[in-house]
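Section 3.1 - Work completed
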Amino acid sequence: MTKRRVFDIGFPDDDTAPESVPAGTDSPSRRSPMAAAISENAEALRDRAAAEARIRDENDALAHEFVRLKKLGVVVDLIALDDIHAQALNRDRATGRDEELDELKDSIREIGLSNPIRVVARDGGYDLVQGYRRLTAYRELLAETGNAEAWGRIPAGMVAPGESLEALYRRMVDENMVRRDISFAEMAELARAYAQDPETPAPTLDAAIASLYASANRQKRIYIRNFARMLDGLGASLQHAPAIPRALGLQVWKRMDREPETLPRLLGQLNAEPTRSEDREMTLLRDYAGKQPEEEQGAKTPAPRKPGARTTLRVAHGAEMAQFSASDGRVELRLPRDFTTIDRARLERAVTAFLAVLDDD
């Protein structure tokens, strides 16, 4: 009879026994490769979904910001010249070539376009809102050089579609109000065209002036109205209306209004010289108004001033105090600010506005 050997089986102590695992599940130490892959893939999918959600949120925020900036007209793009139409709005510009256009072209050649034009998308193209001279300069540069790479497209701020025609006119007018060379005749002609346009909300000349020149002071609006009435009376008989000084135009209108029976004589004189020069037209108007050339500038005999006389002012500007002095042929402004850091075009607009206020009676 064979003896059976008894083997000792060593069981672990209770404190070292592995934790119980529910039936049907894998122990962490015995997890299958498939289960690990599935878990890792699920985690990767969760991370990817979270990343895509963040990207969508960022894209939505960027889209809303783009729309906001576009409404402000600060979104700029390069627009082909052929896609821009300048006929949508009547322009407060005299017909004929601008004498200062060559200076603008030289500036654009040397330093580029400092201030983009403004356009609004319409019917597959763009309608010009602001920047007629800048657009004209680019078109002439393209015609002169044939360089479409440099001059075939122009920087343009995109005005969001949907703005009313009245708002588009106001954009154009407010930009040009500080322009040094715009005349009362040009502003009056624009008001007349605006009132006659059936698409605008202004049925009368007074309503057109009130809408277009809301930012101008009351006296200036009166001048524009009187120039418009003068243009109503003289019509196409005038050939150089933008050259009429403010004082002369107002005097012509006063006589037309006071003595309407004298108007046919003036019209006859103008029509009798169809090829007259600008100087000749001004002479005929002066004769009619009974004015001398120096009176057109509102010239008055100035009070005697002591040699070297000076006017000084102190003007509060925020938390700072600006020191201003004026003498014969010279003005000086002192402010703790580096004016060389300001864009040249912006400085020019500020100086132009300053001079316009001085000339405004």
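Second construct:
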Amino acid sequence: MRTLAAFGLAGLAAFTLAGAATRASAQEVVGVWERDTGASRVRFSKCGDALCGTISWLKDPNGPAKLGQRIFFDMKPNGANKWNGSAFNPEDGKTYSGTMTLSGNALTTAGCVMGGLICRTVKWSRTN
């Protein structure tokens, strides 16, 4: 019985640490990221139990994208440093299935159609 109780506590501790690691990764994404072209910046923040991204700066404020426009929705953890949700493209006005992958201070986002057969990726770098 003692071993089972010890295993239960160890298992609970491992589960708690795994949850903390997921939250820590999400926190690493929270902040402002600049697109590789330098055309825009997006602020990622918590929105409920997910992450969302809102345009916080535009090089050309007269284009189709608008300040304050949410372009990433409901990005939820899907493995280590990966999230799935939805991505809105202001250029064509369509919403796509979206993914994000974090690697250090580099974030790669993708909007996909046809079940992920065709994707457009964008690279971002942390600005804060």
